Amino acid sequence: MKGPLFYAKILLFGEYGIIKDSKGLAIPFNAYRGGLKTTKVLEGKAKASNENLYKFYNYIAALNSELVSFNLKKFKADLEKGMYFDSSIPQGYGVGSSGALVASIYDKYAADKITVLENLTREKLLKLKEIFSLMESFFHGKSSGLDPLNSYLSLPILINSREHIEPAGIPSQKEGKGAVFLLDSEQIGETEPMVTIFMNKMKNEGFRKMLNEEFVTYSDACIDDFLHGNVASLFTNVKSLSQVVLKNFKPMIPDAFHKVWAKGIKTNDYYLKLCGSGGGGYILGFTEDYEKAQKSLKDYKTELVYRF
């Protein structure tokens, strides 16, 4: 048995903002992927994955939802045959490792599943997102359902608001100097503690005001610029967003990267922002000159995502 592959995702813009119903833009990232496989000898990573899938099976079996039902008999039989999730997607890195797993389980075991080939109306997209939110909550405590949705559809997705999501056409890549890239913090980030910090900060009126008047304003502007190919305006807004995040989201930025973050803003060599919930994993970088950014970040691992 070898299932279809599901890709990692990158939330280019909208982290934390989408919790408060602002815009978000997520794109598939094909450099990392995962799929269901079966082995006769379960050991190492495959054994750990199989054990984790058993826990996920129990969680899904206990779900009492009218939204979705699963072929639990087949799911359990496959687990007993040695099924595991074979993935190159790094865990705790903000690129949707659990999302790809959720997408693969839905694809294989959901009854009356909504397929990628049918006409994806807004209602179907919202239903899928709701199902995936329910499923992925097993991993994060609370999930928007966006990561599995992106992985399942393998399309860029624009979140206009909680009730309005749509597939998005993003400009095709150019052979320019500019780039979006990943910067490896070389430490694991955990979503749940970061979201808890954010929710506690939201109790502060000043933080809420900043989120609405600055963070969301710049983040939404970045999305519009990116989708319309307004590169000059994009970098102006990304720089502003980077400054706001450094000032107000320090707990989500690994300590070792506070100076690196500030250096980018000061030199204009690159601008950094959170990739997912932060706290570790990848940091997302934007630069008008990727070679220059690489030299400036020569002590760190970078990985290209998109070229301008």
From TrEMBL:
InterPro entries associated with the record: GHMP_kinase_C_sf, GHMP_kinase_N_dom, Ribosomal_Su5_D2-typ_SF, Ribsml_uS5_D2-typ_fold_subgr
Gene3D superfamilies: 3.30.230.10
GHMP kinase N-terminal domain segment(s): 81-147
Alphabetically ordered keywords of this record: ATP-binding, Kinase, Nucleotide-binding, Transferase
GO MF entry, a single one: ATP binding
Domain of life, source organism: Bacteria
Protein name as annotated: Mevalonate kinase
Organism the protein comes from: Polaribacter glomeratus
Classification lineage: Bacteria, Pseudomonadati, Bacteroidota, Flavobacteriia, Flavobacteriales
